[in-house]
Amino acid sequence: MQTSDKDIIELYKLQAIAKGLSIEDCSVYFHADKLDAMILSGDNKLRKFAESNKKEVHGILWIFDELVSAEIIIKGIAFKKLEQLMKINKRLPGLECQKRLKLWKKY
Hints:
The chain is mainly alpha-helical. The chain has 2 domains: about 5-60, no CATH class; about 60-105, no CATH class. The chain is about 65% helix and about 5% strand. The protein has 6 helices and 2 strands; from the N terminus they run H-H-E-H-E-H-H-H. Strands 1-2 form a two-stranded parallel ribbon. Strand 1, helix 3 (about 45-50) and strand 2 (about 55-60) form a beta-alpha-beta unit. Helix 5 (about 75-90) runs antiparallel to helix 6. The protein is elongated and about 55 Å long.
């Protein structure tokens, strides 16, 4: 998607009202809004801003849930991959990760 000069101006206006969001986060929000698309992000500030503006937002755990639900990956693989991810990403929501690991461990 091409970003026009007009879009750039709108991005900076958005950043002025979306306190704490980087221009990159504003770009994600702006384009999702323009396309009426959901946002995939683990960034808490972006998530809160988007949710306060009635945008659908999901993170990586939702992606795992969707992959398991659609049987694209089996629960045993999801368990192993989530364990690996938790080792390199300390910002994941621990309680939510543990719920999934408990569910998927027996597979």
